[in-house]
Design brief:
This protein is of the alpha/beta class. The chain is about 35% helix and about 25% strand. The chain contains 25 helices and 39 strands. The strands form 6 sheets. Strands 1-2-3-4-5-6-8-7 form an 8-stranded mixed β-sheet, sandwiched between helices. Strand 14, helix 9 (about 305-320) and strand 15 form a beta-alpha-beta unit. Helix 6 crosses helix 11, helix 16 runs parallel beside helix 17 and helix 19 runs antiparallel to helix 20 (about 665-675). The two termini are about 20 Å apart. The relative contact order is 0.06.
Length: about 900
């Protein structure tokens, strides 16, 4: 079945999605269409009698035309149906029908092809239906299931929902709320992890590889791939494909095939190294031959301009329609050093590939791939797997991290990122991976990362401190360059993690010892032992004894050993003695032998050319170890939230201006109130007489403030009059403010009750075009506006994320009772941030919500002002249903 160009009215194209199924292959989910009538007849005809009876409770040999018409003609609101397509074949159907128009309860049903059971199709369809239904106001699903239909009952139970059952008249009535729970999210992420890890494993562990475009002479990309696979000792079968080769032609001792379809064996991985114009034909051949995955080395795609970008989109669609994952295009290749595979499917000469080791590596560009591999080899640092994503049309660093989560051979991960296709997912997976093994990231400024135009809030690309805090929140070690990445990797792979920040310094040079101690202190490491300085020509036993004494000190967590000539000539005895002492102690040690970088042979002790390099790596490992020991808390779930009311406010504002609009004061108040955030009312006044009359209706002290947007970003100019307790004072304050703002062309003055004294803070949620929701916090006024003292965190947040966020600003002492002032109610502040973070996470249409001023005081917290802006945004790339980036 081919996709039709004309779609039915109201067809929700945004529901279409590619997904990785449980077997690692790719399927396509889309809404049902009227032209699906014949495919549904074919689907039904291929089903067993048992499957038909379990679905329809009757032996229906052929569906009536009337029934199929009803199935395929839906309104995409009260009646919704999705289909799963693989190789243009309909293999699954899921649908729901509301019991009442626009009602909150719907009946759900599924039907999966007998030939595709066990691939997770029913689970994927349920995820997508539930998310679509929830967005449209459905709260509960019902289903009638025959008792013998255990598979369908398992689909509901295993999804993590709280499922209720009732048995009546031979049928089990199943019901469950579709609001996501911790359990349902955990199930979804676990399934996503297993599927994506399995798909990457199929790429890294192929039993057969075909190189399409293998040249008959050396000097071509295809021939380089083929020769490196052969010369690297690949344990599987490799096939050369060259459509111009004569029958019987041998390439590097192997027979040549004109087409991948001519190979009389199943091909797991096809390397495509042909001109860009021929790539789609090669992909079509692979699809027909049942190839599982593609590595596209060809260039001339998105990196070459608009025509190449269009060609790249066609490549992706064609591969996914056939169920294949793609590494590339413009990929440098992949390497798996596992002795059972020994696959060097790259253009890196086998002699320059690092040996088998514990570092998993990912890079995007080919040139960077060469640099990364060469640097690892020079240091004697072995790798487990390596992949170059090139233009990253499909397989990305996120997919590799999913695989490395379970890979016991990979003890640390290094990523060189030029751009990030799905940063929210990156943060989520990286946080999980970092809790198991170190993740080290270099993020370059290149790569053309683009944000949608017209967005009100700066992207995190323009806020590098926000990106750095995202990595910190995820427990990722950030390196500034490839050298730093390997400096850290050679430490965390070969040494235990530090138990604390206390270090010893051992050296044979006063100058080196001073440099090491100074560097340690600058990175917040505490020098508690030494520097101990030996004689410049100290012998091996003296060095051993001194290092052993430092390691044996119970107050020492790590040792920094720095040696200059003549010891630094790397006497093997010195190296061996150092390694033996460190191994026996079980504490980490970094060494400086001037000019040397890498792992000292035979010792496992990482060496660095300067003390500063050694200390920087040790500080990174120490900070990572501290993050591992930290309690990361529980995801915040405030009570008293009304999502439907918030949806209504946002939809009303967008109907007023579909392109985006500021929220009116009453809209902002209603939106925040729906999430349990009360906003103090302001009463607009247009004259001193009105101000006095409004004051008389209030109780206690009031303030007058100028409300014009023109003045919002001009702090410190006296736009507020506080402490007004008398009608005359109110009238005079109004006249004073009016005289101040009128020459500026500003207008608007409002009256408000005066909040208790405390600390004014500002809290902002913004929908970043790349990272999704970002929550920012700081003390209002000079700390935020002048000093930039702001912290950022990325929802969903835990309670410990929020505590860390508040305590991380430099002005935090003001909240804790600075110079005798009473401390503010931090619990109330934490709750406010939690509620705003959940609001931002739930509603991507909120371009920003700014709470300012917010008065934090000893008895609570008061939101005195709020502004918001809504705008249509693309679907988030990390929603409640599994999707692959398009």
């Amino acid at each position: 079945m081919t996709e039709q160009a004309e779609l039915p009215p109201g067809y929700p194209q945004e529901w279409e999605a590619d997904v990785v199924l449980s077997d690692g292959r790719v399927g396509h989910v889309r809404p049902i269409r009227p032209d699906d009538i014949e495919p549904i007849h074919e689907f039904h005809a291929a089903q067993s009698a048992e499957s038909i009876y379990l679905r329809f409770f009757a032996p229906i040999k052929r569906l009536s035309d009337r029934d199929v018409h009803r199935f395929t003609h839906v309104d995409y609101s009260d009646r919704v149906a999705l289909v799963m397509m693989i190789n243009d074949q309909l293999v699954g159907i899921g649908r729901y029908d509301r019991l009442k128009p626009s009602g909150p309860v719907a009946e759900v049903a599924f039907n999966v092809s007998d030939h595709h059971h066990g691939r997770g199709i029913g689970s994927v369809l349920l995820e997508h239906l539930a998310d679509i239904a929830r967005e449209d106001g459905v709260k509960q699903f019902l289903a009638d299931v025959l008792p013998q239909n255990r598979k369908m009952i398992s689909v509901f139970k295993d999804a993590g929902y709280e499922v209720a059952h009732e048995f009546d008249d031979g049928v089990i009535a199943v019901s469950f709320d579709i609001e996501p729970t911790d359990a349902s999210r955990a199930v979804r992420m676990s399934r996503e992890h297993r599927s994506e890890a399995r798909s990457v494993r199929q790429v890294l562990y192929p039993s057969t590889v075909a190189v399409i475009g293998t040249g008959r002479t050396t000097g071509t990309v295809g021939r380089a791939f083929f020769d490196d696979i052969v010369d690297g000792g690949y344990t599987g079968q490799v096939y050369a494909v060259n459509n111009r080769a004569q029958p019987g032609t041998l390439i590097n001792g192997h027979p040549t095939y004109a087409s991948v379809g001519d190979i009389d064996a199943a091909v797991d991985l096809a390397v495509i190294a042909v001109p860009a114009k021929d790539v789609l034909d090669a992909v079509a051949e692979c699809a027909t031959a049942g190839v599982k995955a593609l590595l596209v080395a060809s260039e001339g795609f998105a990196e070459s301009g608009p025509e190449g970008e269009a060609l790249q989109r066609r490549l992706l669609r064609q591969a996914r329609r056939s169920g294949m994952r793609v590494l590339g295009p413009n990929s440098f290749g992949l390497i798996n050093t596992d002795p059972t595979v020994r696959l060097n499917a790259s253009i890196a000469d086998t002699g320059h590939v690092p040996g088998h080791g514990g570092l998993g590596l990912f890079a995007q560009s080919g040139a960077l791939g060469v640099t990364v591999l060469s640097s690892a080899q020079r240091r004697g640092l072995g790798i487990s797997t390596f992949a170059s994503a090139g233009n990253r049309v499909d397989i990305s660093g996120n997919d590799l991290m999913q695989y490395w989560l379970d890979d016991e051979d990979t003890r640390a991960v290094g990523l060189y990122l030029e751009s990030m296709g799905n940063p929210r997912k990156f943060s989520r997976i990286a946080r999980k991976l970092a809790s198991i093994k170190p993740v080290i990231v270099v993020k370059s400024g290149a790569g053309g990362q683009k944000a949608p135009a017209g967005h009100h809030v700066r992207s995190t690309r323009e806020r590098p401190e926000a990106f750095a805090q995202m990595l910190k929140q995820a427990g990722v070690i950030r390196a500034e360059n490839v050298h730093q990445l390997f400096d850290v990797a050679q430490l965390v792979i070969n040494q235990p993690l530090p138990a604390g920040r206390r270090v010893a310094v051992v050296t044979n040079s006063h100058a080196l010892g001073s440099l090491a101690a100074g560097a340690a202190q600058s990175w917040d490491l505490e020098v508690v032992h030494g520097p101990v300085t030996l004689h410049a020509e100290a012998v091996t036993e003296q060095i051993r004894a001194t290092v052993e004494a430092a390691l044996a000190d119970p107050d020492v967590d790590s040792v920094i050993a720095c040696f200059s000539p003549p010891v630094a000539r790397i006497d093997p005895e010195v190296v061996q003695a150092l390694g033996e002492a460190v191994a026996a102690a079980g504490k980490p040690c970094v060494a400086t032998f001037l000019g040397m970088r890498g792992v000292t042979p035979g010792s496992g002790v990482p060496a660095y050319p300067t003390p500063e390099d050694a200390v920087l790596a040790l500080a990174a490992a120490t900070n990572y170890a501290a993050w591992l020991r930290t309690d990361h808390g529980e995801r915040v779930r405030p009570e008293g939230i009304n999502r439907r009311t918030a949806n209504d406010v946002i939809e009303t504002a967008l109907r007023r201006d579909p392109a985006g609009t500021d929220l009116a004061e009453e809209e902002a108040t209603a939106l925040l109130q729906a999430y349990g955030i009360p906003v103090w009312p302001m009463i607009p006044v247009t004259s001193d007489v009105e101000a006095v009359a409004a004051y008389k209706e209030q109780e206690g002290t009031i303030v007058l403030k100028a409300t014009s947007p023109l003045l919002r970003h001009q702090p410190g100019q006296g736009w507020v009059r506080t402490g007004l307790r008398h009608p005359k004072a109110v009238g005079a304050a109004y006249r004073d403010l009016e005289a101040l703002i009128s020459p500026l062309g500003a207008e608007g003055i409002a009256l408000q009750r005066m909040a208790p004294p405390g600390v004014a803070v500002e809290i902002l949620s913004s929908e970043d075009p790349l990272f999704g929701p970002v929550i920012s916090f700081g003390v209002a006024g000079v700390p935020v506006d002048l000093l930039g003292d702001v912290t950022h965190r990325f929802p969903p947040l835990t309670d410990m994320d929020i505590i860390d966020m508040v305590s991380s600003i430099k002005a935090a002492p003001l909240l804790n009772g600075y110079r005798g002032a009473p401390p503010v109610d931090l619990e109330a502040l934490y709750d406010l941030i939690a509620r705003l973070s959940v609001l931002a996470d739930d509603h991507p249409e909120l371009a920003y919500v700014r709470l300012n001023p917010v008065m934090a005081h000893p008895l609570g917290i008061e939101v005195l002002g709020a502004q918001g802006h809504v705008a249509p945004v693309p679907t988030r790339t990390d929603a409640e249903r599994r999707t692959m980036p398009s």
